[in-house]
Structure formats: C-alpha cells, structure tokens
Amino acid sequence: MLGLMQQQSLLISSLIEFAEQNHGDSEVVSRRVEGDIHRYTWADVARRSRQVANALDGQKLPQGARVATLAWNGYRHLELYFGVSGSGRVLHTMNPRLHPDQLTWIANHAEDQVLCFDMSFLPLVQAVHAKCTTIQHYVAMCHADALPADTGIPNLVSYEAWIGQQADTYAWPELDENTAGSLCYTSGTTGNPKGALYSHRSTLLHAYAVALPDSMCISARDAILPVVPMFHVNAWGIPYSAAMTGAKLVFPGPALDGKSVYELIEAEGVTFAAGVPTVWQMLLGHMKPAGLKFSKLNRTVIGGSACPPAMIDAFRQDYNVDVLHAWGMTELSPLGTVCTLKNKNLSQPADVQMKLRLKQGRGIFGIAMKIVDENGKALPHDGKAAGDLLVKGPWVIASYYKQEGGDPLVDGWFPTGDVATIDADGFMQITDRSKDVIKSGGEWISSIDVENIAMGHPAVAMAACIGMRHPKWDERPIVCVVKKPGAELSRDELIAFYEGKTAKWQIPDDVVFVDAIPLGGTGKMLKTRLREQLANYVLPGL
Ligand code: AMP
Questions:
Q1: 253, 121 contact by CB (below 8 A)
Q2: Is 280 a catalytic site residue?
C-alpha cells in the first residue's frame, strides 16, 4: 500500500522562496572585495536570484549548463547559488587558490559556459580565458563603472549590468529533484581533480542534516559566519541551511585574517562560525595578546583537518565558545559526522570529555559508516580497531562527474581514504589517511604532483613526497630525493625548480636527500617506513 502524501520535489528554489516569505527581513551582510560592508536581506537575495535566472534564460543557456564562479564569500555569490541552481543550471564553484593550469583543466573538463568572478580574480581570468575553450560569457561581479575599459576578455559584462535590466519575477521550474544543482571538484584523490555533482535532492536533505540540533544546530536566532569558502563544498552547505531556517548570514569576503574576522564577528553579533583550524589559529592569535573577548559567539564548527586539543581548550575555557569538531568530504556534500556529546557524557570527568571532543564525531542521520580491514572484513565498533572508513547515504556520491575513475563504490559503500575507529556510542575518530594526498591549511596538495615535478629535474633519480605536521598549516609537504649517480643538486636548486610549475603554497617546504626510498614487494613506495625514518625530522623554521 502506498502512502497518500503529496509528491513534491525537493528543490533548491524552495529554500529561497521560503527564506523570502518567512524571513524576508533577516539580514545578509558581506564584507566586499572593495573592503566596505554591504547589507541587505533574504528578500533582496530572492529578488536578485530571480534576476540571475532571467539573465541566464536571456542568454539561452540550456538546462544543465555549467555556470562557474571564482569568488569569495559574498552576497552576489549567494544570489548565484539560488539563481543558477534554481533555474535548472549547475553552479560550478571553482577554487581560485589552484594553479591557473589546474583551473583551466577543471573549467574545460566541466565544460563551463559562463564564468562569474570577483574583481580580485580579474588577472587570473585574464591569464586563463584564452585556454578555457567552452566559456562563452564572462561576468565580473561588480558595477559597470568598476570594470576597466579593456580587459582583453571577450563577452565580458559587469554583474550589475547583467542582472540590472532583468525582471525580478520568475517562475522557478518544477525540476525533477534528482536534477544536478551544483558541481565541486576535489583534488583530494590521486590523478586529476574529480567532480562531485550534487543534486537538488541531496542538497536539500543535506541542508536538513546540517541544521539538526546535534549537527550545527542552526536556527532563525543565529547569525552565521561561514569563513569556510563558498568554493569549498558549498561552504559546507551553510548557505542552504541558513535559507532553510532564516538565519542571518555574514560573509567575510577575502579578509580572512584574525583581526578582520574578529571585527566582523563582533560588529554583526555572530553566534556561530565555521572554518578550518588554520583560520581559528589566526583568530585566536589576534585575540589573545589583545585580551579580546566574544560578546555573542557561542559555538564554532571546526573541520577539514583535525582540530588540535589546544584550540578546543582555548575556545571553551578562555572564550566560553563550544567547539563542534566535524568531519566530511567533498564527496559527502560534505557533512559526515559532528562531535556533540550525549547526555551520559556530560557527567563524565573533563579528561574523558576531552578525549571524546577530539574525535571527529557521531554520524548524522543519513550517513551510515563502517570500518573494514585490508580484506574488506567489517571491524568492531569498539573504539580500538582501526580500519578503512566507508560511508553511504543520500548525499554521498554514487559516481564522480563523467564517471571519472570508474565506479568508486565497494558493494555500495564509498571508501573515504581515511582510516578510523568507531566506538560503541558511534563516535568516529580518524587515526590515519590511506590516500596519498596532503592537506595544508584546508587545501589539498597532491604528493604525486610534487613527486612528478621533482622527477622532471635531470639530477633526480627518485622522489617521494610526504606530509609533515605543522602547527599552523596542519601539514606541509617535504620531498625526499635520491640523486642520480654523480649528479649535483642542492635543496635550494630543487625548490627553485618548482617555481611556476605549481601553486606557490603547493611547493614543498624542504628537500631531504636520502640514499634510497624504501619500496614494498610490488615496487610501491613505503611512505610509512619513510616517515618512521624521518621521525626526528623538523620542518625548517619550526
Ligand atoms: P575535502 O574533500 O577537501 O573536504 O577533504 C576531505 C578530507 O579531509 C577527509 O577525507 C579527511 O581526510 C580530511 N578531514 C576533513 N575533516 C577532518 C577532520 N575533522 N579531522 C581530520 N581530517 C579531516
């Protein structure tokens, strides 16, 4: 017997309609690229998203067309979130921190047709546009008078001119809820970056999950500062959950230093902020010496990398701010777990609670987790056995965009590349990473790319890149090199060789010359052994 309830698609447009109708006066505040503060409401976001949709219709952009962005967190970016996806196109948020060659590759792979960019990325777009073969329209996210006369970029309009002439009425299409809504590439896998293509349905279900009380606990009484970029897995889904609840949104633009973030938190009465540990390191580093306090901030979600214990202590003890340690991935939209304590934990001693808070947290409803040994056999959830972490759920990818890399699933489960324990209460803790990538300041560095560049140097016989712990960046890459017999090569020469071949922050911090790189039976580099050999190694400058 079937239920007799209405069949209604879960659509991104319904979020902005809801926010307009129920929280039309709730504010959206942005620090702009220009440095000033822009302030308007969810009703304005809704109105201008409809103008975006009309502008895309006017350009005869078909359903499913990819509209890319290169932009900081700000109100125009938010309008694109709803206008592009709501009208049936796919919002492709690109990471401007990538090397121009990587960006070009990604834009061509996605077959983007429109690129909307913040003016701070004008030089980047000028450098890459000739190689982006599918982009037909460029939109600079500024007023017409802020656009220089001759940029060399074809079909370039300002955002305000682009939407300014458009009607602010629009009938959002009744899409199938499985229609693609947004696309985000991850460099956290081996080989080329791969796209995670989210649907309206997965985005809506994820938005509910993000807002749940034992998740980020988002409500209409919150003022949320997503420091996590809107080009990192849709700012962890916060823009959608904020629309779903009518929370005030505060966007930091490009100013992510401790002082700017602190001032925005205080000026806008921010109650909840989200970001990677590096951002909070900068914020606490600014506040501590000046003896500053928060007046309204009551919790922060920290994820993307493991949250150091000292940070949890500082937020909780010095500032009375709760820390929600969270884990997720681009492939998971991204939220998988959040560390909130259970009732029974609250009466436990402080050291026991601290041990729990350091875990990545409990799976939110919708995410199933298991850990397996090297033969795929399920391991017990006893908090001790560590194994490969696999997940499944309605906002976990079934396949990468264009089926890149083949079927990623193992018996319907997605292997995360993380190694973890799960305890009897469901608290998951990452203990290691099986994927060969390095995460620095919340951004990926491919060890294979670092090795390939080194191998391109005529004096290098073999190279192995490994990540080393760093107090600010979490991890930094170093490259271990075996020189060719008789070849001369210094550390500085090899570091200089990387210049221009990869983004600056992806260049290894150091070169360690070794006689041999340990290899396994199949010829694979044994990086765990290499790491053991370098147990006493200290990164330069630490
Ligand atoms: P991304 O796809 O860029 O969001 O990166 C996802 C990966 O970042 C995960 O598979 C983990 O390796 C790592 N990660 C995310 N959150 C955490 C966390 N709280 N602790 C440790 N590693 C994390």
A1: no
A2: no
State the residue for tokens 């913040």: 118
Q: How far apart are CA 167 and CA 208, in angstroms?
A: 31
Tokens describing residue 57: 């219709």
Cite the beta strand spans of 359-472 per DSSP E. 361-363, 368-372, 387-392, 414-422, 427-433, 437-440, 443-446, 460-470
Rg of the chain (C-alpha set): 24
Contact present, 244 and 208 (Cβ < 8 Å): yes
> Following DSSP, what letter does each residue of 182-235 receive, concatenated?
EEEEE-SSSSS-EEEEEEHHHHHHHHHHHHSTTTT---TT-EEEE-S-TTTHHH
- Round to whole Å and give the CA distance between 453 and 431: 29
Rounded to an integer, the average pLDDT of 460-468 is: 94
111 flagged as catalytic: no
Question: Is the CB of residue 379 less than 8 Å from the CB of residue 356?
Answer: no
8-state DSSP, 102? H
**What's the gap in Å between 360 CA and the centre of ligand 1?**
10
Of 329, 359, 371, the residue with max ligand 1 atoms within 8 A of its CB, to mutate for a pocket test, comes to 329
Evaluate: CB of 334 within 6 angstroms of ligand 1. Answer: yes
230, 238, 421, 430: residue to mutate for ligand 1 pocket, most atoms within 8 A of CB: 430
Q: Which of 255, 316, 252 is nearest to 284 (CA)?
A: 316
Question: Which residues contact residue 445 at a Cβ distance below 8 angstroms, ignoring those fewer than 6 apart?
Answer: 187, 437, 438, 439, 467, 477, 505, 506
Q: What is the pTM of this model?
A: 0.95
Q: What is the pLDDT of residue 523?
A: 79
H helices of 316-446, in order, are: 319, 350-357
Q: Which of 29, 275, 226, 255 is nearest to 120 (CA)?
A: 255
Task: Write the single-letter amino acid at 166.
Answer: Q
Tens-digit pLDDT profile for residues 332-341 = 999 999 999 9
